[in-house]
Design a protein that fits this description.
GO molecular function, one term: sialic acid binding
CATH superfamily of one domain: Immunoglobulins
Distance between the termini: 182 Å
CATH class of one domain: Mainly Beta
Subcellular location: Cell membrane; Membrane raft
Shape: elongated
Number of strands: 52
Largest sheet: 10 strands, mixed
Radius of gyration: 63 Å
Strand content: 35-45%
Family: Belongs to the immunoglobulin superfamily. SIGLEC (sialic acid binding Ig-like lectin) family.
Number of helices: 4
Low-confidence stretches: 1-58, 60-67, 76-81, 610-727
Protein name: Myelin-associated glycoprotein
CATH architecture of one domain: Sandwich
Keywords: Cell adhesion, Cell membrane, Disulfide bond, Glycoprotein, Immunoglobulin domain, Lectin, Lipid-binding, Lipoprotein, Membrane, Palmitate, Phosphoprotein, Repeat, Signal, Transmembrane, Transmembrane helix, Ubl conjugation
Mean pLDDT: 75
Length: 727
């Protein structure tokens, strides 16, 4: 039978600090609270005055006490039993080298009624199957080596108090701690609730987020006080000239842990900006001392922001990294914003803010703005970013097809930084150019067929070069070129008609004498081939043994018609027209080789047959002819002798040019030759003397190579011959 609650005892001591109560009803507990609360407030007011400097401390204590009231009710209710459960602070801290008391209470169902209650504390894991390190075990006192001599149970498990004490703390003991209740048999339970222990080395100094010159501020130093064997003492460092500290005392936190608090009140000046203020926690009768520091950031009276640091204009090459920096001075700190064209790129509450641009492109070229603002005003600055890059591929806008005589305007444009040099070429000839311009316009006042062709627009600067090709097509009426003609070879007539035109014309051959017209569609007679603006058509007529007919070539397109009667030329010209320039060169080379071969063969043959050809008294006869001198019965022989060192006096070729081998015409000396015969000899040799009465047309001989033409072939043959005629 549950007895009524006796007067509760408040145990305020370093070892536990808990209310130890017998079971009571909530109504009974609430009826007892006012007297207890009154007594507590009386004790509180004696310790901490409600007026003056202690007013803040009094309010803080009152708030903590009222907050802890529901927690006491939970603890008292838990003592009545009912289900498995545990309570301990979720986190607790302690200085290295000291100790820590982790408060803990647990509960289990009343119907179990165990004779003996045991418990186990585990480190970092609640499950025995994971073999976590054992911190404390009431049955065997066997613990992990890390906790030997360091762990001790302060609570009474029979009273459902599982408070744990850890001493000689070191950093490796920081972590999670779990409690497991052991009531015997299968009545074992590991509670999910756990406490995280944090091992620290510095006091915690709390400075207000804003310290304004001329306005009183409160700086606090807080250290954990959870070791029942060692209690810290606080002192301030570097507080000279700032004011005298006020020690608030030992305070309990919401989860049952304890802290020591010391307050420092002072009125900062502008000169105190950056001052280093420290707090020291020491433990009596030990060498343990811990220090912490904080720097004062003293602001002046509230003022609008002023931008004091910003980039000047920036130039960067395409693909590089760019960093834009903006800094401002204000109180309170300003909101800094980087913007471009009204778009926010980055913003933050800070004294400086950078904007990082990775691998900049021409699209990021422009003006950037830095805006600084707070509740008291704003300021802004602009930064120009110029991205340098090579010209883009030029674009051509304008006329690409024109009629002869029209005016043509072609616009070539590009984009680059810096501006490029633009040039328009045609067949490596500069037609127009501009320097440091993005556009170039080419004007052709009256285009001609010669303006037709491929053009290039080239843009370049120090970062690169790009070019674009475009074609200008000039349309004009057909023009029949003068190289058009006809040629006959044996019984075949071929007519060549070369037409220059754009667009492609139609070509027809007209034979007026036969009243016949042949066009390109009749492939049996006409062959056509187009190359650029030239159209070559060849008409072939076979079986033309008689005189070749008249041929008229007519060409027309949508701009006009042109006709020309084709003149007849030698057959060899037709051949050159067929085979073209390259074929003509090859044929000519072959022809020269054949001629050289024939000549060399003949020379070798003559030398073989006449070894004394160049010397001797009686040179061989190369040509002979019988003639009679009137009045003389004898028969004479005319011989041609090669000259040793040139012609005889008085002998020359027409024009004074001596071509081919030279020969002397000689008459052999014969006994009884009359004076008339000697005169005839002089006449034949062209020597001075009386002219003989010979009926001789000429006696000059030049045995050079003379061409002979064969009307039935398309080649020229070279022959060596000489001729002497006597009339």
């Amino acid at each position: 039978m549950r007895a009524a609650l006796r007067q509760p005892q408040l145990i305020v001591g370093p070892e536990i600090g808990w209310l130890r109560l017998r079971p009571l009803s909530p109504c009974t507990f609430l009826s007892l609270v006012p007297g207890w609360l009154t007594d507590s407030f009386k004790w509180d007011q004696k310790t901490f005055p409600t007026q003056g400097d202690g007013a803040v401390a009094h309010s803080l204590y009152k708030m903590i006490f009222l907050t802890a009231l529901p927690l006491f009710w939970i603890m008292i209710s838990a003592s009545r039993g009912g289900h498995w459960g545990a309570w301990m602070p979720s986190s607790i801290s302690a200085f290295e080298g000291t100790c820590v008391s982790i408060p803990c209470r647990f509960d289990f169902p009343d119907e179990l009624r165990p004779a003996v209650v045991h418990g186990v504390w585990y480190f970092n894991s609640p499950y025995p199957k994971n073999y976590p390190p054992v911190v404390f075990k009431s049955r065997t006192q066997v613990v992990h080596e890390s906790f030997q001599g360091r762990s001790r149970l302060l609570g009474d498990l029979g009273l459902r108090n599982c408070t744990l004490l850890l001493s000689n703390l070191s950093p490796e003991l920081g972590g999670k701690y779990y409690f497991r209740g052991d009531l015997g048999g299968y009545n074992q339970y590991t509670f999910s609730e756990h406490s995280v222990l944090d091992i620290i080395n510095t006091p915690n100094i709390v400075v207000p987020p804003e310290v304004v010159a001329g306005t009183e501020v409160e700086v606090s130093c807080m250290v954990p006080d959870n070791c029942p064997e060692l209690h810290p003492e606080l002192s301030w460092l570097g507080h000279d000239g700032l004011g005298e500290p006020t020690v608030l005392g030992r305070l309990r936190e919401d989860e049952g842990t304890w802290v020591q608090v010391s307050l420092l009140h002072f009125v900062p000046t502008r000169e105190a900006n950056g001052h280093r203020l420290g707090c020291q926690a020491s433990f009596p009768n030990t060498t343990l001392q811990f220090e912490g520091y904080a720097s004062l950031d003293v602001k002046c009276e509230p003022d609008p922001p002023v931008i004091v640091d910003v980039n000047s204009s920036v130039e960067a090459i395409e693909g590089s990294h760019v960093s834009l920096l903006c800094g401002a001075d204000s109180n309170p700190p300003p909101l800094l914003t980087w913007m471009r064209d009204g778009t926010v790129l980055r913003e933050a509450v800070a004294e400086s803010l950078s904007l990082e641009l990775e691998e900049v492109t021409p699209a990021e070229d422009g003006v950037y703005a830095c805006l600084a603002e707070n509740a008291y005003g704003q300021d802004n600055r602009t930064v120009g970013l110029s991205v340098m890059y090579a010209p883009w591929k030029p674009t051509v806008n304008g006329t690409v097809v024109a009629v002869e005589g029209e005016t043509v305007s072609i616009l070539c444009s590009t984009q680059s930084n810096p501006d490029p040099i633009l040039t328009i070429f045609k067949e490596k000839q500069i037609l127009a150019t501009v320097i440091y311009e993005n556009e170039l316009q080419l004007e052709l006042p009256a285009v001609t067929p010669e303006d037709d062709g491929e053009y290039w627009c080239v843009a370049e600067n120090q970062y690169g070069q790009r070019a674009t090709a475009f074609n200008l097509s000039v349309e004009f009426a057909p023009v029949i070129l003068l190289e058009s003609h006809c040629a006959a070879a044996r019984d075949t007539v071929q007519c060549l008609c070369v037409v220059k035109s754009n667009p492609e014309p139609t070509v027809a051959f007209e034979l007026p004498s036969r009243n016949v017209t042949v066009n390109e569609t009749e492939r049996e007679f006409v062959y056509s081939e187009r190359s650029g603006l030239l159209l070559t058509s060849i008409l072939t007529l076979r079986g033309q043994a008689q005189a070749p007919p008249r041929v008229i070539c007519t060409s027309s397109n949508l701009y006009g018609t042109k006709s020309l009667e084709l003149p007849f030329q030698g057959a060899h010209r037709l051949m050159w027209a067929k085979i073209g320039p390259v074929g003509a060169v090859v044929a000519f080379a072959i022809l020269i080789a054949i001629v050289c071969y024939i000549t060399q063969t003949r020379r070798k043959k003559n030398v073989t047959e006449s070894p004394s050809f160049s010397a001797g008294d009686n040179p061989p006869v190369l040509f002979s002819s019988d003639f009679r001198i009137s009045g003389a019965p004898e028969k004479y022989e005319v011989r041609l002798e090669p000259l040793q060192r040139g012609l005889y006096p008085g002998m020359s070729t027409p024009g004074g040019v001596h071509n081919g081998p030279r020969f002397n015409l000689a008459l052999p000396s014969t006994s009884g030759l009359s004076e008339r015969r000697l005169g005839s000899e002089r006449r034949l040799l062209g020597l001075r003397g009386e002219p003989p009465e010979l009926d001789l047309s000429y006696s000059h001989s030049d045995l050079g190579k003379r061409p002979t033409k064969d009307s039935y072939t398309l080649t020229e043959e070279l022959a060596e011959y000489a001729e002497i005629r006597v009339k």
